[in-house]
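Entry for the shared binder. Reason: the reviewer on the internal report wants the predicted structure included alongside the sequence.
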Amino acid sequence: MTDTATHLPTDEILSDLRSWLEQNWDPDLTVGEWWERLGLAGWSAPGLPTNAYGKAIPRTDAVAVANEIAAFGALGAPAGLGLLLAAPTIATHGTQEQIDLYVRDIVTGQRAWCQLFSEPQAGSDLAGLQTKATKDGDEWIINGQKVWTSGGQYADLGMLLARTDPDVPKHQGISYFAFSMLQDGVDVRPLKEMTGHTLFNEVFITDARVADSALIGGLNHGWAAANTTLMNERAGLGSGGGNSAGGGAAQPGTVMGALAKRVGDFVAPQDTSKAPRSGGALGAMRGGAGMLIDLAKKNGVNDDAGIRQDLTRLYTLGEIGRFNGLRLKAVKEQGGDIAGMPNISKLSMSQIVRLTRDVGLRIAGPSGMLHAYNADDKASLSQATGDPFAGSVTEMALFAQAPPIYGGTDQVQRNIIGERVLGLPKEPNNDRATPFSELPKNA
């Protein structure tokens, strides 16, 4: 990863951004035209290195950039797993040719990505994956099944982990591909959640193909690239890791058809009397205690000692996450790092979402037993309760079970901290020495 930028003060970065926005924002552009301006100027993903369409600034400053774009009234960067996960992984492990091919289309919103990691029979043991890649000339033939694929139904490309050598230990025989989702042999089946949404999918891959040139990080070196993806995922999902404010309703990629639409139509001023219209349940949870404090006042329970205590805890956890981000920034500017911080942040976010669930339902009272599963239901629920936030509270409560699982379970995070940060002994096993083909598989 090339990083030649100097570390400018946050105020100077934001001043440069505001000047750029004043000269370049035009609501009459198409979404695609605006994202091309934003991405090629380095403002879509300013945390990326300079050779990968970024500005090499710290994560906390990148979050400040996203918030500043939103505050200006412009459409933010193309949201999704391409920007969060694929771009930093390719910037780290890809060739410059791959960076120019894939990352450019990510920062300009031309292609949307999904993550093809988890498998039904592997569970939390990601390295136990069985999706198989077989070499065929200049291509690989892929067969297997993935699950919990966020946004797979909207994706142009996927970050695919596949086994390219079963006769070496399991971590050594995995490769990482930039895989086309829009081809024969790829069957995406949405999984409806108890929230009413279909964020996750099953993906069945049958004799699909991917070019050898789409190998990221080289043959059988996929585990290193996968860990880069996972670290970015945990840092992005963790407390203090980011904010959805810089995004918007426009979806990147070719599937959803937003690129040709007028960009100004996606940045209408938000009505703060209504429930959040973007970011989903996790976006609302990232907002910290603010929404719930307002709701407690509205419902007349802001004097309840228990609720006040939990709202204070929720606010404190959010501030700790923010300060950890600032602390990490300061350490990295001195050439250091804080081991395990992405894992700690991910664990903290799990605690935040559980607390948000519990205190939110207590504040909502009886209306917390009702939930809206579609737009018509949301309007009816708001009218029946007189509370435009009622649907958001129940959505957060139902969604709260997911963050402690995806991106690596809480147990996985604790194991990583124990083994890689604290130096505790690993559980005894022989899977790092035994060929994958000889290991027992789940039935």
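Summary line for the report: Residues 247 and 411 are 31 Å apart (CA to CA).
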